[in-house]
Amino acid sequence: MSKNKKKNKELKKFKPETFNKKRLKNEIVAVFYAEPGKTVNYKQVSDLLGIRDAETRVLTNVVLQELYDDGYLDQVSRGKYKLKARTGSVVGTVDMQSQGFAYVNSEELEKPVLIPSRYLNHAMEGDKVKIRLFARRKKHDLEGEVIEIIERAKSVFVGTVETSRHFAFLIPSGKAGFDIFIPNDKLNGAKNGQKAIAEIIEWPANAKNPIGQIKDVLGDTGNNDAEMHAILAEFELPYKFPVNVDKAAEKIPLEIPEEEIAKRRDMRDVTTFTIDPADAKDFDDALSLRKLENGHWEVGVHIADVTHYVQTNSIIEDEAQSRATSVYLVDRVVPMLPERLSNGVCSLRPNEDKLCFSAVFELDDNAKLINEWFGKTVIHSDRRFAYEEAQQVIETGEGDLKEEILTLNRLAVLLRDKRFKRGSIAFDRVEIKFEIDEKGKPLSVYFKEAKDSNKLIEEFMLLANKRVAEIIGKRSGSKTPKTFVYRIHDKPDPDKLANFNVFIKRFGYGIQLTTAKTISSSLNSLLDHVKGKKEQNVIETLAIRAMAKAAYSTRNIGHYGLAFEYYTHFTSPIRRYPDMMVHRLLEKYLAGGRSASEEKFEELCKHSSDMEARAANAERASVKYKQVEFMQDQIGKIFQGVISGITDFGIFVELENKIEGMIPIRELDDDFYSLDEKNYQLVGRHTHKIYQLGDEIQVKIWRTNLEKKQLDFQLANRI
Fold first, then answer.
1. What is the distance of C-alpha 695 from the center of its chain?
2. 3-state DSSP assignment of residue 155
3. CATH topology assigned to domain 3-83
4. Which stretch of DSSP H or E encloses residue 431?
5. What is the mean pLDDT of residues 273-289?
6. Phi and psi for 359 in degrees, rounded to 5?
7. Is the pLDDT of residue 202 over 80?
8. DSSP E strands: which ranges in 143-250?
9. Would you say 658 and 643 are in contact if contact means Cβ atoms under 8 Å apart?
10. From 3.30.70.3270, 3.30.450.20, 2.40.50.700, 1.10.10.10, which CATH number describes the 156-221 domain?
11. Could you tell me where the beta strands, DSSP code E, fall in 247-368?
12. Confidence band (pLDDT; 50, 70, 90) for 186?
């Protein structure tokens, strides 16, 4: 039997349900490498991989398009692909290591390529590079050298200024791997110890350090505003609006012309209200309720009509597109839109007429969808509720608009139950919050848990998002769906799930891995069982890590976590740019418009996904900073904790107040410990002592480092 035939035979053994997008991509790449000169379409690739189910065959087509977009395949003709001619070089992304070397991750290779520091040739974290592969040595990692920097991930860095008499350095935050040399005439007024932003202007071939200039001085180290702005700058997120954008926003009137109202469905006479966090100022969504003559319920999901005010090709649109999302730090919101719009013109404030894009549903008493309508409306919110106020109405049955809130809550519970029966997964994580004084200093820590009032809003937003995606994405027969923006969520990685299952068995738990449906139902059962138990957070964290990350794309693969075949984001256009894209596309298609450019919107989807990830990282960094700041007064104190993470450089421990720190591995000086990654444990070479995920231990607060957002523990007594 030939090598290729054997390969294909082996590939056919894969079961369709084992494929998520990542695994499928690896197998498709293997198919092309098995026969480099062959041209195939998605049907032929599916046959070679033994894929029979329609869902995975659609996913195969999506993966082929992505491999073409990323430059790994050539498209010979529409839908037919072949492997791009290979040279001795590959393209990938740099992942810097703290020791100074790097790995380059490439879709063209199964494993990362080790790049020693001397062969980095000024490549930096996140850069897209071309590397030359070295001849492989036996029992060694694949190694290479950077020969071209195709695309810089960043040229602007935030850090702390260190000055001397004739020059200065900017010491970047994060894992840059170098300091930036700043000549005195490029300091822009920055002083020693201040937080600042520097731009690299030159990096001579033989120089150890790049040369830069200070673009902006953020303020003194330790100052709350300076530190929060530094976190935003570290992730290349803006912390203020350009003057011309604010000026353009101020010109937009609050008043609604009568001729605009006349074009819309007038729903101002229907009882309408908002439910939001107590400190919220940007109200994206409102709910309305009335009983119809046939006994059914009309539920209106009213969403701020942002795109009515923000026109395409305007400077406000360009800024919103660039930002793509609002950023929620511990002590502030950095909005996507200027305050005039986000908190004023667009915000669905009480006792004001507002323009909306609405989804109006007719539901029976069992929350069955009978009818629906989508279109432009004008509303008048009668009441603004904080979540706590709405929760009190639900719990006591008394208060403002009690009939409406109780009815909507009952319908939401029914919708939620149906969703879970279809396979939706319930990740109800507890959020850590801080009480902060006027200077930004954390005074106390508390936890926020989703209650019925949160779930009420969530359920109707999910319904609107799902139905908007379905009316555009679902097409009967061979009709090609029009270009649309979907919120997609891939199936979990089978290997990660298998490892997770092995780990939870030591707690007496287990999940079924046979099909997507059994995975989600048994996972829900597990998450319910662990509530309130010491292992809850560890198991929830690992379960989330086994899941794929949600993203935006024009190429729909469904949303695994919600168990929705079609899903989008329609309900938060004040704080998310993808929702603005959805509003524009929905309006266009409802009016009978032609399909938009997939290429254009896919690019915007990728940008939005990237900015969402950056915002999430910045939010986590701000929480970490406040955690370390809060624990500065606790040095030397002993706390009970649970091992929440195991790495080859230390043990992460979560305290009872949810604050997390690390015991550096060098502090475990009674033995040499090695990482058993599969079993989430450190094992002593001589003593065979084990530190394992989920173990209860006592730790002493050893030191804090605000600059690095680092909280270090020492081991106290092992429980």
1. 29
2. coil
3. Arc Repressor Mutant, subunit A (1.10.10)
4. strand 431-436
5. 95
6. -115, 115
7. yes
8. 144-151, 156-163, 167-172, 180-183, 194-202, 211-220
9. no
10. 2.40.50.700
11. 265-266, 272-276, 285-291, 297-304, 327-328, 333-334, 353-363
12. very high
Fold annotation for 635-718: OB fold (Dihydrolipoamide Acetyltransferase, E2P) (2.40.50)
- C-alpha 387/C-alpha 385 separation (Å) is 6
User: What distance in Å separates the CA atoms of residue 443 and residue 421, rounded to the nearest whole number?
Assistant: 42
Q: How far apart are CA 396 and CA 598, in angstroms?
A: 50
Helices (H), 273-384: 306-309, 315-323, 339
Residues of the chain with CATH 2.40.50.700: 156-221
Range 364-377 average pLDDT = 97
Distance CA 710, CA 624 (A): 8
- Nearest Cα to 183, choosing from 214, 157, 158, 204? 214
Superfamily in which the 89-151 domain is placed by CATH: Nucleic acid-binding proteins (2.40.50.140)
Of 496, 608, 562, 598, which Cα lies nearest the Cα of 62? 598
pLDDT digits (tens, 9 = 90+) for 511-538: 988 887 888 889 988 988 888 777 787 8
Q: In 507-543, which positions are buried (b, 16+ CB within 10 angstroms) versus exposed (e)?
A: bebebebeebeebbbbbbebbeebeeeebebbbbebb
Which run of H or of E encompasses 654? Answer: strand 650-655
Q: What is the distance between the alpha carbons of residues 595 and 484, in angstroms, rounded to a whole number?
A: 9
pLDDT exceeds cutoff 70 at 8: no
Average pLDDT of 536-556?
A: 89
DSSP E strands: which ranges in 493-560? 551-553
**Dihedral, CA atoms, 191, 197, 198, 199, nearest 10 degrees?**
-160
The Cα 640–Cα 90 span in angstroms is 49
Phi, psi of 23 (to 5 degrees): -65, -40
Closest C-alpha among 659, 670, 674 to residue 709:
659
pLDDT tens-digit map of 157-178: 999 999 988 889 999 987 777 8
